[in-house]
Amino acid sequence: MDKLWNGRFSKATSAKTEKFNASIGFDYKLYPYDILGSICHADMLASEGILSQTEFNSIKNGLLEIFKKIEAGEFEFKISQEDIHMNLEAQLTESIGEAGKKLHTGRSRNDQVALDMKLYTKDWVINLMDALTSLIGLMNTLALEHLDTIMPGFTHLQQAQPITLAHHLLAYSEMLKRDFDRLYCAYERMDESPLGAGALASTSYPINRVHTMKSLGFKRITLNSLDSVSDRDYLLDCLSASSILIMHLSRLCEEIILWNSQLYGFIELDDAYTTGSSIMPQKKNPDLHELIRGKTGRVYGNLMQLLTVMKGLPLAYNKDMQEDKELFMTTAEQILDSVDILGATLSTASFNRETMYEATLKGYTEATDLADYLVKNGLSFRDSHHVIGEIVSYAISHKLALKDISLDTYKAFSPLFSADLYEVIKLENIVASKAHVGGPAPVICKEHIHINENWLEQASEKVNSLISPKALLKALL
User: How far apart are CA 34 and CA 88, in angstroms?
Assistant: First the structure.
């Protein structure tokens, strides 16, 4: 079948041009959104008298039949038709005849692809926000189970102060809540319909942009046709949010990788989410988490690639923008997979409480509270810091834990020590003493969990309030 735009040309494009120019190898994923957009566009044309009702019905039914064929794996995407838009329109025209040729009235592939990518992105944001609420909910549940699971908090990868596993997990819940908010804000900004912008200067047909805005589930209409077809800020918003999100996931994966090592032994990963070695039979590798850590670079790169593509483009549409789809879709799919893998990992893993507790003792993490003990008994903090440093040095050289040093020895370092110091440096008491907002005390973590529960309710309401383009299409079937 001839290309839909070949009237201007006297000779066929070369096979090299077709291969290099085509985007159907990746933009075929836009087919639900292209079909939805085309049905809503045709509905508007019919309501304005530009198409007859009979023509609209034929177009709608023809597009829905194509959708069913694609879903059943019975549709052939052709590279000769370049992209998803021309593949679908060509098939529609072949199926229903002349009415199919009228579908493109009053629109361009420029506003069509801008619409399709926005619809695709809106669905992805909804799915990712939903996945994040599930992961945050899981962390909340685990935190409640581990309010009293003591572990070392680290700075510079050195045991620093006692905290709880709950406190540690809740730190990540805060990161993920910020990620959710960034995505929600990105969705709100992109919730503008570009359909009707045409190639760059709108159209002389008496179209009704409010009609298509409402039927496609958008809140607003874009206000400038030049910007409408050349805007990719919403993709940059989402790529930026994705880069920050996967950075958070990568940090958590790094900790899981460390904790899973035999030197740490803090966590036991389920066999279903680890792999083995081809040569070392004893190995149980956290390969999935290393892959997430590695894919972080690709997500960052996709953001930089699109920024670079866009930085020098004059208004309005330029073919460079075709590069947005493959890189964004790669990010979109891998982010969802990464969140899913981490959720599955955490829900099936077991934490070694005793090992964590012993590691907290071995790191002399009580030292800061022991210094505070002397300050509370009248010594300046700087002098107290020096005394406790000497005591830790003594403990290391004698291979003793701080709790195992005799009171007489403590008094030799400072007469301010009394027998009550042993209660002060109990790990449970140290953690419980940090009962300020944001601290690791179980009572504070329990309040944090309750705050998260309220946040999750509100987040779920936000997600449910958003209109899924795929749900709109299903309603038409």
Answer: 8
* pLDDT, average across residues 351-358: 97
* Structure letter (DSSP) for residue 275: B
The size of the chain, in residues, is 477
Q: Across the chain, what does the average pLDDT equal? A: 95
Structural domains in the chain, sorted by start: 6-101 (1.10.275.10), 109-148+163-198+223-352 (1.20.200.10), 367-424 (1.10.40.30)
Number of Cβ atoms within 10 Å of the Cβ of 175: 17
In this structure, what token pair is assigned to residue 117?
């990518």
**CA 63/CA 68 separation, integer angstroms:** 9
Give the distance, in angstroms, between the CA of residue 252 and the centroid of all CA atoms in the same chain.
14
CB atoms within 10 A of CB 475: 8
10, 156, 278, 436: the catalytic one is: 156
Is the preceding omega at residue 459 within 30 degrees of 0, hence cis?
no
Choice among 14, 52, 261, 277 that is catalytic: 277
Q: Pairing state of beta strands 220-221 and 192-193? A: parallel
- Confirm whether 156 is a catalytic residue: yes
Backbone angles phi, psi at 221, to 5 degrees: -110, 140
Q: What pLDDT is recorded for position 342? A: 97
Supply the pTM of this predicted model: 0.94
In this predicted structure, what is the pLDDT of residue 370?
Answer: 96
Question: In a 3-state reduction of DSSP, which class is residue 158?
Answer: strand
248 is catalytic: no
> Do 108 and 229 form a contact (C-beta atoms < 8 A)?
yes
